[in-house]
Specification:
It comes from Methylorubrum salsuginis. InterPro entries: Acyl_CoA_acyltransferase (IPR016181). The chain is 22% helix and 32% strand. It is an alpha+beta fold.
Length: 317
């Protein structure tokens, strides 16, 4: 027997009373939205999980370079993320830029660095659909994983680079003169292109300006480690350069020898790789089909080899 104090009460429950209702479980709230400045720490944490070989400095440096570029109002600065109950569980960097050409200004978007936590991987389609809604924008992917190549083609992307050429420029035709980027040589270029070249030199690219006295054009190279052989020997690499931009009107074949001489005088590499749709008979070297393909969808696709302001130069090797 137990004694009850005066402060204790005994609930009176009848066997006929209904059982209390079980509270309904709230469904998880999922949404896709643009990345804001306050999200960058969470976004970088996700990217470091998905790309374990990339440091925090790698992401912060590239995003800071992209942040410095002007964009019109209403355009996402960094891209998109997926939230589940307020927690960032997926990210897609979408690096927009304004492109000026003969047809006028247009928007180009480099779709880059997709990652969704494994337990939420089914939500990844939200990112893709949300990011590619605007048909007036040209979307490019310059580093697609091999398992996504067929998916890109199914979504209407077309190949803008089907392989790469390794060329020895010193063996090309000698015409004109190629000189390092300087205030004097930048003055030979249109203002918008001079600004593009100066930006990329500040990112660490090697820049040359070629001229024959009548016309001029720019070339930009990024230092990269180049794989020697695929397959089991894919780990073998040698230092080299990748052509990441040249002036649209520049005849690369006619200035190749002068470029090769300038590279040797600067003690840079005697060879470089460039993106190509197919083997170029006008350039000395070897073509590697299927290597580093790139895709684009939209009204103004870039020419093969135009990697300006993409992740390849913003984030670096």
């Amino acid at each position: 027997m137990f004694a009850l104090s005066e402060s204790e009460e005994v609930p009176l429950v009848s066997a006929s009373d209904p059982a209390p209702a079980t509270p309904k479980r709230e469904r998880p709230k999922t949404r896709c939205r643009t990345i804001e400045e306050d999200d960058l720490d969470a976004v970088i944490a996700l990217l470091r999980t998905g790309f374990a070989d990339r440091s925090e400095g790698y992401w912060r440096r590239g995003l800071a370079r992209h942040r410095a570029q002007p964009l019109p109002d209403g355009v996402p600065r960094y891209g998109y993320l997926v939230e589940r109950d307020g927690e960032a569980v997926g990210v897609l960097l979408a690096l927009y830029r304004v492109v000026e050409d003969e047809a006028g200004p247009s928007l180009r978007c480099n779709l880059s660095s997709w990652y969704v936590k494994p337990e939420f991987r089914s939500l990844g389609t939200l990112l893709d659909g949300f990011a590619m809604r605007d048909r007036t924008v040209t979307y490019v992917n310059v580093s697609p994983a091999p398992q996504t190549w067929a998916m890109h083609k199914a979504r209407g992307f077309r190949t803008i680079c089907a392989g790469q050429m390794l060329t020895l420029p010193i063996l090309g035709r000698h015409r004109g003169r190629a000189r390092p980027v300087s205030p004097e040589t930048l003055a030979l270029l249109p203002e918008a292109e001079a600004r593009l070249v100066a930006d990329h030199v500040s990112y660490g690219c090697l820049g040359l300006v070629w001229s024959d006295g009548a016309k001029a054009g720019a070339l930009l190279f990024q230092r990269r480690a180049i794989k020697v052989l695929p397959g089991r020997l894919g780990w073998l690499r040698f230092p080299g350069l990748q052509l990441v931009y040249h002036s649209p009107g520049l005849d690369l074949a006619s200035c190749l020898g002068a470029v090769g001489r300038a590279l040797l005088l600067r003690r840079a590499m005697p060879w470089f790789v460039l993106d190509a749709v197919e083997r170029r008979a006008d350039l000395p070297g070897r073509y590697f089909p299927g290597r580093a393909p790139k895709f684009a969808r939209g009204p103004n696709p870039p020419m093969a080899g135009d990697l300006s302001y993409t992740e390849i130069v913003l984030f670096g090797a």
